[in-house]
Design goal:
Elements lengths: L9 E4 L5 E3 L34 E4 L16 E4 L3 H13 L5 E4 L6 E2 L14 H4 E3 L1 H8 L2 E3 L4 E5 L4 E4 L2 E4 L2 E4 L4 E2 L16 H10 L5 E5 L3 H12 L3 E5 L12 H14 L2 E3 L3 E7 L4 E6 L5 E6 L1 E4 L3 E2 L2 H7 L3 E2 L3 E3 L12 E3 L4 E3 L2 E2 L6 H12 L13 E3 L5 E6 L6 E7 L3 E8 L2 E9 L1
Parallel strand pairs: 4-5, 4-12, 5-8, 12-24, 14-15, 14-20, 15-16, 23-25
Antiparallel strand pairs: 1-2, 1-3, 6-7, 9-10, 10-11, 13-21, 17-18, 18-19, 22-23, 25-26, 27-28, 28-31, 29-30, 30-31
């Protein structure tokens, strides 16, 4: 039995940086204040990312001594070393070779092209193959300080100070490139499913799929549809599950979705449309999923692995504490020209922001956004002009591109429709606001 006189301890999640404090417990997880970590069930999950107790390790605030960066000119601090974060580094260095830059990342900071993750399995590309440059090498090349394997615990915008797992860090200008996290349906425990939103997760999933498996993909947006074909091409059996009657329903109308559905079914994808996952249970060899269809018919499906591709949301804990205006499912609200948040000297870009209420979840705007932020930070002329990027599905069995701001429930009209090609336009107030082209 634990000695009640033993000082309370803290434990940090190695996956996301969440700290379990025995003094505070986890009331939302039915762990009252004072609950010792050793008394927590092994099945307890991290409140932020859903990993298990075994992924936590002892954490001592005193060990997080202030970094050397805080002792010199503060400069620019960037949180997030994905495509958006490194784009800011590139943009700043193109304009100023001397300004101090610190890049904070929870992983290694290796540079890679995230959209490739949904089509890399069939090409036998490993994690190493996808890395364009290591974080360490890129930091050296750009003369910046890289704080790898570091989590930001809080932001104090008044003092311009970050509390990180490596200590306290001051900044003059702060850039948030924190991305967005996969949304797991409540019926699917996080420890039972994968996502391909991160290089390390991709590498782990690839290892599990070394031999042919039956994979269930939940969510038939762009990532889900691309990954379904990729896994089929890699020799796996794929069931694609979505609550809507056809793929890409958020972007395109039924007439287009039916053509896409026909193509992926011809490819060998087992389509379960108008269905929701009601429960998942572990079996001796994999998982059993209980699925409910539109006719209220319940069926069970045995699969080896589950991948979720049901959308993204921003991590609200850090943003709420800093007083930033944001919406969980769309992102941090920023000025459309300067990408300034509501908090002075804090900019944001990439997957974590929204402009005019719409999330910016595509890669193409990252560089112009980074360029605009670099100009703002350095006091130079230059603003961001938001243009909806071209949307292109990376499937080989069907070619799908869209321009503008397509919405599945919009007012669409078919311009051309034959066996090989379909073109459509979406109208709003009598004006064309989006176009789509589908070829087989």
């Amino acid at each position: 039995m634990t000695n009640t006189l033993t000082p309370f301890q803290k434990f940090i999640c190695r996956a996301c940086g969440h700290v379990y404090d025995e003094t505070l417990g986890d009331p939302d997880g039915n762990l009252p204040a004072g609950t010792r970590f050793e008394h927590i069930s092994p099945d307890w999950q991290c409140p932020l990312c859903g990993v298990k107790k075994s992924d936590f390790e002892p954490y001592d605030d005193a060990q997080a001594a202030p970094t050397a960066v805080s002792e010199r000119e503060h400069g620019v601090v960037i949180i997030g070393a994905g495509l958006a974060g490194w784009a800011v580094v590139d943009a700043l260095r193109a304009l100023d070779k001397q300004i101090p830059i610190t890049l904070i990342t929870a992983d290694t900071g290796d540079r890679y092209h995230k959209p490739m993750l949904s089509v890399a399995m069939s090409q036998n590309k490993t994690r190493k193959d996808l890395v364009r440059a290591t974080g360490e090498q890129s930091a050296s090349d750009n003369a910046i300080t890289l704080l790898a394997h570091t989590h930001v615990r809080s932001i104090d915008p008044n003092a311009k100070v970050l509390l990180t797992t490596c200590g306290q860090l001051s900044y003059d200008k702060l850039v948030l490139a924190i991305g967005a996290n996969p949304i797991y349906p409540p019926s699917i425990p996080k420890e039972m499913a994968w996502h391909v939103n991160h290089l390390d997760k991709f590498g782990d999933l690839q290892h599990r799929l070394a031999t042919p498996k039956h994979v269930a993909i939940v969510g038939a947006g762009m990532v889900g549809v691309e990954l379904a074909e990729d896994l089929i091409n890699a020799g796996h059996t794929v069931s694609l599950i979505d609550m809507n009657p056809y793929p890409l329903s958020a972007l395109l109308p039924l007439v287009a979705g039916e053509r896409i559905l026909s193509a992926i079914k011809d490819k060998g994808v087992n389509w379960l449309g108008h269905c929701i996952v009601k429960s998942v249970s572990k079996t001796d060899i994999g998982y059993q999923m209980t699925v409910l269809d539109q006719k209220n018919t319940m069926t069970t499906h045995d699969v080896d692995e589950i991948v979720v591709a049901t959308g993204l949301s921003v991590d609200e804990q850090l943003l709420t504490q800093a007083g930033l205006v944001f919406h969980k499912n769309t992102g941090i609200v920023v000025d459309e020209k300067t990408l300034q948040t509501n908090v002075p000297d804090i900019h944001a870009l990439g997957d974590c922001i929204s402009i005019d209420g719409m999330p910016c979840r595509y890669v193409a705007p990252h560089r112009p956004q980074a360029t605009a932020i670099a100009h703002q930070i350095l006091g130079l002329d230059g603003v961001y002009t938001h243009k909806p990027p071209m949307i292109r599905l990376k499937n080989k069995c069907i070619n799908v591109t869209a321009n503008g701001s397509p919405v599945g429930v919009g007012e669409w009209r078919v311009i051309k429709d034959d066996d090989g090609e379909m073109s459509l336009e979406m109208l709003k107030g009598g004006e064309v606001v989006a176009k789509a082209l589908i070829k087989r």
